[in-house]
Amino acid sequence: SNPRDGAAVGGRDGGRSGASDGGYNAKVISAIRMNTVFSIPPSMANPKARFQVSLLPDCSVSSVQLVRSSGNSAWDQAAQRAIERTDPFPRPAKGACDREFTIDSGPRDTP
Question: 72 with 44: CB under 8 angstroms?
């Protein structure tokens, strides 16, 4: 199995990958977190929604697609809006933006 399966963000373009830069991952997740507007009901656990995000070369968001629902449509929508608001994504310290990200997002996640 893939040791990165639990990771919040993973670049997937074979060359230099954002997935290898934990500081950059934290920056992306933190930026998305700041754009998240959602009141977590006390009884809610931490359901994960998975999104496929495509970026343009300038790090702006091209598309956000829900690939696996968290089972809570209100959270799915809030998480997707947060990713769409994080436009453009932070730039990596070196190199270009990864073009594809898989983002797992739960309401109780912390970067």
Answer: yes
Phi, psi angles (nearest 5°) of residue 62: -90, -45
Q: How far apart are CA 38 and CA 56, in angstroms?
A: 27
Residue 28, Cβ density class (10 Å: 0-12 exposed, 13-18 middle, ≥19 buried): buried
Q: What is the pLDDT of residues 49-98, one digit of tens each?
A: 999 999 998 999 999 999 999 999 999 999 999 999 999 999 988 888 88
Q: Are 51 and 83 in contact (CB under 8 A)?
A: yes
Q: Which residues, in sequence order, are CB contacts of 93 under 8 Å at separation 6+?
A: 21, 23, 24
Residue 101 CA from chain centroid, whole number: 7
